[in-house]
Amino acid sequence: xxxxxxxxxxxxxxxxxxxxxxxxxxxxxxxxxxxxxxxxxxxxxxxxxxxxxxxxxxxxxxxxxxxxxxxxxxxxxxxx
Length: 80
Known about the structure:
Layout: H1 2-8, H2 16-41, H3 45-74
Helix pairs in contact: 2-3
InterPro entries: Glutathione-S-Trfase_C_sf
């Protein structure tokens, strides 16, 4: 859906290379969300807290760092 909407509103890039850049960002965000969603569904509050702590301490920083790298590589000096 994200890619479809990006194309509909001319946010997907002007050529295949720009579209690949957008895809890299979307995929990185999707990876983070995919890791987070099972935590939300966990019913055991103790386990949920443990999983959330691990996610925020280990998983999320890696995804944010990857987004930062993509921003530096693909950015044009403006807002990411």
